[in-house]
Amino acid sequence: MSKEIFSSINSSVKDSLRRPIETRTGMIPRNERLHRVSDAVGHIFTRELTVNGIEQIQRVKELSEEGKRIVFATRHEAHLDAVALDQSLEQAGYHDIADKIFHMFGIRLEKGVFSSWFSESQNRIRLWPPYDAPQNDEEKELRRTLGKTAPVAMREALDQKYLVNIFPEGTRAKAHRKMMCPLSSVTTLFEQTGVEIVVPVAINGTQNILPRGGLPRRGSYSVTFCEPIDFPSLLATHQDKQFKSLRQAVIDDIMRPIADVLPEEYRGYFADHTE
Hints:
Layout: H1 3-17, E1 27-28, H2 32-45, E2 46-52, H3 54-65, E3 70-74, H4 81-91, H5 95-99, E4 101-106, H6 113-120, E5 124-127, H7 137-159, E6 163-166, H8 185-192, E7 197-204, E8 219-225, E9 229-230, H9 231-237, H10 243-261, H11 269-272
Parallel strand pairs: 2-8, 3-6, 3-7, 4-5, 4-6
Antiparallel strand pairs: 1-5, 7-8, 7-9
Helix pairs in contact: 1-2, 1-6, 8-10
C-alpha cells in the first residue's frame, strides 16, 4: 500500500477522533475522503469478489422506490464487511443503493486504527456492543444513551428512505468463521423502527483479507443477496409463541437463508438449529 494512502488514512482518522465521542450519536454521515480511500484499499486487497443474487438487488431497488422500509441483515466475519457490502453492490451496478445505506456499528470500532477507519468511512449509527460490559460509570451512561438514540436514529434513517444494514450476530464470527446465534433483540429493534423488508446477506471470506488479530492480506470473498423477507408477515407466523421464543424464532428465520448458502462447516449455530 502506498505512503499516500496510509497518510490519507491516518489524517482522516485523527481528524475524526478529535470530535468528542459524546456528540457522535444519531445518523452520522461518512467521511467522504476516507470513504474513497477505503474503497481503493478494498480493491487493492480483493483478489476476487463474487456477487450472487443480483436479481434480489434489483428487487430491493424496486421495493425502495416503492417507499418500503428496508434493512439488510448481514453475516459478520470481519471489520471489512461494510466495505464488502458496498463493493458488492457497486460491482453489480447499484451504486445508488450502496450510497443510501446506514450501517449499525458498535462503538468499539472507534478504538483501533483500522476499525476506526472502516467505521468513519461509512454512513453509520452508533450502538453499544451487545457482548461488551461497561467498564466504568461513563461507559454505563454511554450504553444507556446509545440504547435510546440508536433506535431513534434507525427509525429516522428509514423515515428518510435510507436503507439500514445491521449484523444480527452482534459481533464478528469467531471459531472457524462459524455463524453465531443471532440476537433476539434485533427482532424487537425491527418492530420498534417499523421495518417492512429484511434482506439477508451472506458474506463469506472477508476474514481471508482481514483476519482477527492479523494484518490485511490479499484474498477473495463472496457476497450473496437472499430473497427479501416481508417482516410483518414473518412476525405474524410466530404470534402463537411466547415473547422471547417468538423473537428468537423470527431472527432465526431471517438468518437461516444465509446459513443455507454457506459451506456446511461455517453454518455454526444453524447446523444444530434446523427448521
